[in-house]
Amino acid sequence: MRQSFAASRRAVLQGAAGVAAASALGVTSAAAPAAAAPRSRTVRIPRTVAHSVTGPGAHLAPVRTRFPIGHVGVSWTGTPRGVALRLIAEDGTRGAWTSLRPLCTAGADGTEAGARASVLLPAGGAAGYELRLPHGVKDVRSTALDTVDGPSIEVAATARTATIGDVEVITRAGWGADESLRFKEDGTENSPQTYYPAQTLTVHHTAGANGDPDPAATIRGYYYLHAIENDWGDIGYHFLIDEAGLVYEGRYSGTDGIPAHDADGDMVTAFHTSGYNSGNIGIALLGTFTEQAETSAARASLTALLAALSDYHGFDPQAAVTFVNPVNGVTKDVHTISGHQDWLATECPGAVLYDQLPALRADVAAAGGAARR
C-alpha cells in the first residue's frame, strides 16, 4: 500500500512552497486575494492496492479492494499485444475484457520483448478487476487507484494558476498533486530536476478514455502511474490538455512559478520520449485519437500553448530541425513540432491527430505571428 509511504513523507514537503514574480517567459501566477490567501491546502493521498507477479505466462488472481476503484494502472515487460483487463462490480459481475494498449511498442533494445509498457484504465468505481496475460509477459504490476476520496493531508499553499503568454495553466497545486510522490522513503528526491535549453516540441495523447468526467483525477492517476509504477519520480509530460481546453502543468520544475522551466528559461527534463527527453517539451492531450479527432477546445489550447512556447524559445513552428540530445549527443531529424511516433515505435499521438500535425504547425505559426503584431 502506497498510502502509508506517502503519509510518512509529509515532513519533506512542509517547506516546499512559494512562487516568484513574472519572468521573461511572460509567466504570472494567480492566487486568492492576499487578505484571504490560505496558508495551507488539502491534498488527497491516493488510496492504492498493488499486486505484482514475475515469470513468463504468469497470471494475476482477481483483485478486490475496500474502496471504489477510480483507475487501474498496469505495467509489464514484453509484448504489448494480448494483455487485457476486465472490471468486477460490487455484486461480482464481470465486465467485458478490454485490451490494454500502451503508448510505446518497443523497448530500449528496439524489440517488443524489451519493452516496458504501462497503461492507465478508468474503472468507474469498480470493486475489483482481473488481468489476462499472454505468454512472454513478465514483471507485471497492477495498482488499483482512488485519487478522489483518499485520506487528506495539509501542505503549504501555492498558486493554483499561472499564465504563459495568454495561456492559463492549472498548476500542480491546482490539480491536486501529492508532491510526496516525488520522494523516496529516505526523503531524497527520486528524480531530481535537470534543465537544458529547449529544442523541440512533441505532441502526445494519453491513450486513455475520451469524454473524461474528471480530468484532474485522471491526471493524478497518471502522476501516480508514472512516478511510482514506472519509477520516474514524476509525471512524464510537461503539460496536459483536457477536452474542455484546460491546460495543466505536468513535470515539477521548481518553485519559481514558471511551468516546465527554471528562472533562466531552460526547460526541465521530463519522461515522454525515451532517449530524447532532454531539450524536448512534451504536451499530451487527454484521450485517444486513433479514430477520432480532438475537440475544438483542446485543439485551440494546443495551438495557443505551442505558439506561446515557440515565441519564447524562438522556434519556427514549421521548420525541420536536427535535435541533439545534450546529455549524450544522440541526434534525430524531426520537425520543430513533432508527434511521439516521429521519435519512437508507437501509435501516439493517434493516427487522426498525427495526420493533422502539418495543419497544426501552420496554425501555430499564424497564431504566433498574430501575437507579435
Radius of gyration: 20 Å
- Strands ordered across the widest β-sheet: 1-10-11-15-14-17-13-20
Mean pLDDT: 85
Distance between the termini: 54 Å
**Number of self-contained structural domains:** 2
Helix content: 10-25%
- The CATH superfamily of the largest domain appears as Peptidoglycan recognition protein-like
**CATH overall fold name of the largest domain:** Lysozyme-like
Largest sheet: 8 strands, mixed
Residues in β-strands, percent: 25-35%
Q: How many alpha or pi helices?
A: 7
Give an overview in words.
By secondary structure, the protein is of the alpha+beta class. It folds into 2 domains: 3-29 and 156-372, Lysozyme-like, CATH 3.40.80; 47-146, Jelly Rolls (Sandwich), CATH 2.60.120. Helices cover 18% and strands 30% of the residues. It has 7 helices and 20 strands. It has helices at 3-8, 10-13, 172-175, 215-229, 296-313, 351-355, 357-372; strands spanning 27-30, 40-44, 47-53, 63-77, 84-88, 98-99, 116-132, 138-146, 152-156, 161-164, 167-170, 195-196, 200-205, 239-241, 247-249, 267-268, 280-285, 320-324, 331-335, 337-339. The strands form 5 sheets. The chain has an 8-stranded mixed beta sheet with strand order 1-10-11-15-14-17-13-20. A 6-stranded antiparallel beta sheet has the order 3-8-4-7-5-6. Helix 5 (296-313) crosses helix 7. It is globular and about 60 Å long.
